[in-house]
């Protein structure tokens, strides 16, 4: 397996920097990349994280997962990219610092585009296009907290659902909203794709160890599910609940502090049941009650910080199917 100048022979584990372009000042731009090439043939699994510069939790865990793997016990190839948006991370911002582009919204990129578009284009062409399965690990950054595996309604849906269910997270969401991401483009190419949302919000502060265990367990479970690594799947709480999503609540436009009842995550809620509220930041007046438009199960997902940006997911509801 060779990506750029990084090459791993059978039974070998390597780390390197994959050059994906140059800035206007001709400084090279790299993506940190691990390759674990198994001793025998098998699937190629890509685990990527950190497309947003503020989604840093996975990078605390993924290098450690690579370190503990023995290539001699692996079938196939594992590629791990712990932090795609290195400039956003350096400058503590969602988008890339070079051109202000959001790497989560660039699809397949553009060969002749800005540096971020070039980055995604080369990454998609030389990495994503060569894999059989992709796990895109996302978090809620500072605004939300998540613990579920999402599956798009396009491409290899059943195989993607099976992989999502195997990750061991508390819930699987069928109907991950279509976006402009690299992951969705991979799904459209019939890759097995899971958008795994783990952490964010208070996670980095209060639940860091738990979320790091979830990330590690998800990767190891994926390897086991794909037949790349021996061992039994490990599920949080003993099982995973599959939810067919039907409602995605976002801010209505009413300004103020927004609070969602996190105690209802993972629980059934009735139509009209209050899920949260918006409070006037200076008077304490309740400006809006946020209610469930229909009956459903509330996913382990949604806003944590009381000032979520417009378009942020406050809560996800769906019907249990398995």
Plain-language structure description:
- The chain has helices at about 55-70, 85-90, 115-125, 155-165, 180-190, 205, 210-225, and strands at about 1-5, 5, 10-20, 30-35, 40-50, 75-80, 135-140, 145-150, 170-175, 190-200, 240-250, 255-260, 270, 275-280, 285-290, 295-300, 315-320.
- α1 packs across α7 (about 210-225).
- Strands 3-4-6-5-7-10-8-9-11-17-16-13 form a twelve-stranded mixed beta sheet, sandwiched between helices. It has a three-stranded antiparallel beta sheet with strand order 12-14-15, with no helix packed on it. The protein has a two-stranded antiparallel ribbon with strand order 1-2.
- With about 325 residues, the chain is an alpha/beta fold.
Give keywords:
322 residues, alpha/beta, twelve-stranded mixed β-sheet, three-stranded antiparallel β-sheet, 7 helices
Number of helices: 7
For this structure, the quaternary state is: single chain
From N to C, what is the helix and strand string?
A: EEEEEHEHHEEHEHEHHEEEEEEE
The strand line-up of the biggest sheet is 3-4-6-5-7-10-8-9-11-17-16-13
Q: Helicity range of the residues?
A: 10-25%
Low-confidence stretches: none
Radius of gyration: 20 Å
Give the mean pLDDT. 96
Q: Please summarize the sheet with the most strands.
A: 12 strands, mixed
From the N-terminal CA to the C-terminal CA, the straight-line distance is 38 Å
Structural class: alpha/beta
Shape: globular
Give the beta-strand count: 17
- The fraction of residues in strands falls at 25-35%
């Amino acid at each position: 397996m060779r990506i750029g100048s990084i090459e791993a022979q059978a039974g070998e584990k390597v780390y390197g920097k994959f050059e994906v372009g140059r800035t206007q000042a001709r400084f090279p731009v790299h993506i940190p990349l691990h390759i674990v090439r198994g001793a025998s043939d098998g699937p190629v699994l890509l685990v990527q994280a950190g497309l947003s510069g503020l989604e840093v939790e996975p990078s605390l865990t993924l290098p450690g997962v690579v370190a503990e793997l023995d290539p001699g016990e692996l079938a196939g190839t594992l590629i791990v990219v712990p932090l795609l948006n290195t400039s956003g991370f350096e400058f503590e911002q969602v988008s890339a610092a070079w051109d202000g582009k959001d790497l989560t919204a660039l699809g397949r990129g553009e060969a002749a585009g800005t540096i971020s578009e070039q980055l995604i284009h080369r990454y998609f062409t030389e990495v994503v296009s060569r894999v059989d399965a992709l796990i895109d690990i996302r978090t809620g950054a500072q605004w939300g907290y998540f613990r579920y595996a999402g599956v798009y309604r396009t491409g290899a849906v059943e195989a993607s659902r099976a992989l999502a269910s195997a990750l061991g997270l508390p819930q699987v969401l069928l109907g991950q909203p279509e976006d402009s991401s690299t992951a969705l483009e991979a799904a459209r190419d019939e890759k097995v794709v899971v958008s795994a949302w783990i952490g964010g919000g208070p996670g980095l502060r209060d639940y860091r160890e738990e979320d790091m265990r979830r990330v590690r367990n998800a990767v190891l479970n994926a390897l086991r599910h794909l037949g790349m690594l021996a061992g039994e799947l490990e599920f949080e709480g003993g099982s995973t609940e599959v939810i067919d999503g039907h409602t995605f609540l976002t801010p209505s436009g009413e300004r103020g502090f927004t609070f969602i009842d996190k105690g209802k995550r993972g629980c059934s809620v009735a139509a009209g049941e209050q899920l949260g509220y918006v409070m006037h930041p200076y008077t304490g007046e309740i400006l809006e009650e946020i209610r469930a438009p229909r009956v459903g199960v509330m996913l382990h997902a949604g806003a944590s910080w009381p000032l979520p940006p417009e378009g942020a997911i406050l809560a996800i509801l769906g019907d249990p199917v398995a």
